């Protein structure tokens, strides 16, 4: 019987929003820890639907380049530390690394395939929940903009850090300029929790002021919320009123075709 070898593995996770505890495992890296010239390889995701389910704006070409970068690095060196530094320098917090775990195996290649089937190919239960709420709203927004023919004319995943402080993780979903104004649309689901809406309402006045000061434009933010909200729920009503008081316009997902058509007229005028 072949002698078992000491191995270590870790997962590479796609985390589009550092504030939320939501991710997709992109790949698993397996390294023979006690032998610098020993086994070192990785397996990556092949079905990108789960990534798009979490983040419709995911840059798939960039993520495919990540796999090539990791494989190249593993051929050059087995140093986990050097690989992590490379990932941090290239992808910041967008790609996160799981805690390191050890395992024993006489056949590292087979062990890697097993780990990939367990952690990378099998969809996490969490995605079932994530397909509802905000992701449903985002899907309707994208469909409406595509139908109106303006999808590629929009600014997408607009970072607010330039208007607040470096490191701010918030990104608005869509925006476009019209004259001296910028119109912003952001999906906000209140089904599972009103926290996102309350935080957005609390933060938006300062963000809007930062946009005016830096870009010399007037921002107008519309929060696109769930169609079937229970507006008799006190927490839901509180969150909606907070957003309105912060000068955030409230729209529903069912209104997106009309909103997208208005954007088409403005962008193509």
Describe it for me?
The structure is a single chain. With 269 residues, this protein is an alpha+beta fold. It has 2 domains: 5-129, no CATH class; 132-267, Trna Endonuclease, Chain: A, domain 1, CATH 3.40.1350. 42% of the residues lie in helices and 24% in strands. It has 9 helices and 10 strands. Strands 1, 2, 3, 4 and 5 form a 5-stranded antiparallel beta sheet that branches. A 5-stranded mixed beta sheet has the order 6-7-8-9-10, sandwiched between helices. Strand 8 (181-187), helix 7 and strand 9 form a beta-alpha-beta unit. Helix 6 crosses helix 9 and helix 7 packs parallel to helix 8. The protein is elongated, with a radius of gyration of 22 Å. The relative contact order is 0.12.
Keywords summarizing the entry:
Trna Endonuclease, Chain: A, domain 1, single chain, 269 residues, five-stranded mixed beta sheet
Low-confidence runs: 125-131
How would you sum up the major sheet?
A: 5 strands, antiparallel
**Oligomer type:** single chain
Distance between the termini: 74 Å
Kindly report the average pLDDT value: 87
The fraction of residues assigned to DSSP E strands is 15-25%
> Cα-atom Rg, whole angstroms?
22 Å
Number of DSSP helices?
A: 9
Top-tier CATH class of the largest domain: Alpha Beta
Total number of domains: 2
Instruction: Provide the CATH topology of the largest domain.
Output: Trna Endonuclease, Chain: A, domain 1
Q: List the secondary-structure elements in sequence, H or E.
A: EEEHHHEEHHHEEEHEHEH
The total of beta strands comes to 10
């Amino acid at each position: 019987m072949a002698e078992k070898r000491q191995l270590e593995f870790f997962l590479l996770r796609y985390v589009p929003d550092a504030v939320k505890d939501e991710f997709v495992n992109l790949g698993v890296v397996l390294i023979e820890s006690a032998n610098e010239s020993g086994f070192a390889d990785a397996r990556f995701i092949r079905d990108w639907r789960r990534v798009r389910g979490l983040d419709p704006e995911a840059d798939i070409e960039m993520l495919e380049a990540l796999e090539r970068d990791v494989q190249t690095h593993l051929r050059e060196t087995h140093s986990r530390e050097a690989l992590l530094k490379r990932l941090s320098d290239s992808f910041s917090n967008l790609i996160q690394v799981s805690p390191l775990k050890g395992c024993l195996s006489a056949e590292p290649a087979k062990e890697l395939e097993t780990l990939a089937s367990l952690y990378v190919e099998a969809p996490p239960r969490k995605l079932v929940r994530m397909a509802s709420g905000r992701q449903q709203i985002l899907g309707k927004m994208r469909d409406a903009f595509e139908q109106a023919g303006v999808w590629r004319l929009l600014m997408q995943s607009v970072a607010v850090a330039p208007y607040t402080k470096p490191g701010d993780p918030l990104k608005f979903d869509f925006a476009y300029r019209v004259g001296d104004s910028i119109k912003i649309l952001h999906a906000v689901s209140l089904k599972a929790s009103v926290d996102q809406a309350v935080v957005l309402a609390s933060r938006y006045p300062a963000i809007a002021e930062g946009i005016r000061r830096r870009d010399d434009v007037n921002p107008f933010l519309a929060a696109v919320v769930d169609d079937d909200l229970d507006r008799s729920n006190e927490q839901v009503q509180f969150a909606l009123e907070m957003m309105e008081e912060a000068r955030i316009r409230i729209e529903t997902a069912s209104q997106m075709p009309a909103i997208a058509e208005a954007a088409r007229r403005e962008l193509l005028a």
